[in-house]
Amino acid sequence: MYRIIGGDQLEYGPVSADQIRQWILEGRANRDTRAKIDGANEWKTLGSFAEFADALAAQPRSSSGPTTSLSGADATVLANEYARRAEFLDIGLCITRSWTLLKENFWLLVGASAVMLLIHVALEFVPLIGQILGIVLSLVLWAGLDWLFLKRIRGLEADFADAFAGFQINFIQLLLAGIVTTVLITLGLFLCFLPGIYLMVAWLGFGPLLIIDRQLDFWPALELSRKVVSRTWMSWWSVFALFVLTVVILLAGVLALGIGVFVTLPLATGAVVYAYEDVFGPRSTSPA
Questions:
Q1: pLDDT tens, 138-151?
Q2: Residues whose CB is less than 8 angstroms from the CB of residue 95 and which lie 6 or more positions away in sequence, other chains included
Q3: What are phi and psi of 199, to 5 degrees?
Q4: Is 171 a residue whose pLDDT tops 80?
Q5: 272 and 242 in contact (C-beta within 8 Å)?
Q6: How far from chain centre, in Å, is Cα 153?
Q7: How far apart are CA 20 and CA 237, in angstroms?
């Protein structure tokens, strides 16, 4: 028997191998769908299970592509569900789990975070086009780092190359998201400051992860993130408090002779990714 994560990010099962093969043939699951043997701890992709190789090989190519659109009705339904989770976001637990994750994967997470930070700093010294590249590639780079953390949080194998997944997974959408969010957040900060802070919290915490994890187009992903964060005052303040705490953690690293940021950056990143998984990740339910 198996458990499987559906396209709605809910957990279904236990179900038989025959049922999963049927879902594959119907296009409701593909080789990237996460699953595990009932009772096991580690989630894997269906492509890593030899018993589903025949069904995956027979699957029409068009059915294995990512879902990149989200209707307004779907976004509203999802936002209502996810906002309820955001209201009860345990920020302390996010930090605690992030610290544990960091200790267990210290050199991988610290090394990847340091490289991303150094790339951004290096871009600032590139004549003429450096700052433009930094803006254009900002979410491509940070979403890749988030993806590395997300894989380790989900118990999946990950390596240093995963930190650059933004260049392979939904690259164009991340590129567009980086440009649009930078322009609109900067405009909001200049006009009245508070709108910029609002958009920063509503978009940047979960938006990039929705683009790379759920493979949504950039605007539906940003809007879903915003609707979830803004659905109730409790969900907004929960995410805002997490945002403020991560900023404080990063500043503490900077004040620690500057080198502390190489530890506080992955700690803050892990806390945000854990929050994303708590809000948008799977929840156990009976098979539909």
A1: 999 999 999 999 99
A2: 245, 249, 267, 271
A3: -65, -35
A4: yes
A5: yes
A6: 11
A7: 40
Tens digits of residue pLDDT in 78-133: 777 788 888 889 999 999 999 999 999 999 999 999 999 999 999 988 888 888 89
Q: What percent of the chain has pLDDT over 70?
A: 88
* Helical pair 106-123 and 261-280, crossing angle rounded to 10 deg: 110
The answer to whether 166 and 140 have CB atoms below 8 angstroms apart is yes
Provide the 8-state DSSP code for 42. Answer: -
Cα separation of 145 and 142, whole Å? Answer: 5
Closest CA to 270 of 145, 166, 167: 145
**61 DSSP assignment:** G
Residues 142 and 116: beta-carbon distance below 8 Å: yes
Residue closest to 156 by CA, chosen among 168, 165, 147, 164: 147
Domains located in the chain, CATH noted: 2-64 (3.30.1490.40), 72-280 (no CATH)
Distance CA 113, CA 131 (A): 20
